[in-house]
Amino acid sequence: MREANRAQAAQYAAIAQARDWSIVSAAADGDPFTFTDAEIEELARDEHVRWRRHKERQGYSYGPLRSDAGPDKRHPSMVDWEELTEEDRDRDRDVIRNMPAVLAHARLRVTRRPEADAG
Questions:
Q1: pLDDT over 90 at 27, yes or no
Q2: From CA 99, how far away is CA 85, in angstroms rounded?
Q3: Which of 12, 34, 4, 3 is closest to 112 using CA atoms?
Q4: Cβ(111)–Cβ(31) under 8 Å?
């Protein structure tokens, strides 16, 4: 579980870099960062891909029932986003929704590059 949490946190920098955002120091009383609904949906899909690859490296493949023991590890969420249950999609969305709070706990925050600078 700790390895999975570390991999998830390491993804924060990749998320910011891919979108030309920055992760910067934040004051304790600063304005909280929030994602748009569209960003949450897009980033949740990316999070599922990241999670699935992580599980594949651990030896998991698809199975209708979860099995964490032995060499034949299975997980029912080892499917494409479109095949996930809404409950599983919400887990991925929650990972993204929680990202600003996790960063804030470390006194960090995401900043978007101003539109005027983007061009």
A1: no
A2: 22
A3: 34
A4: no
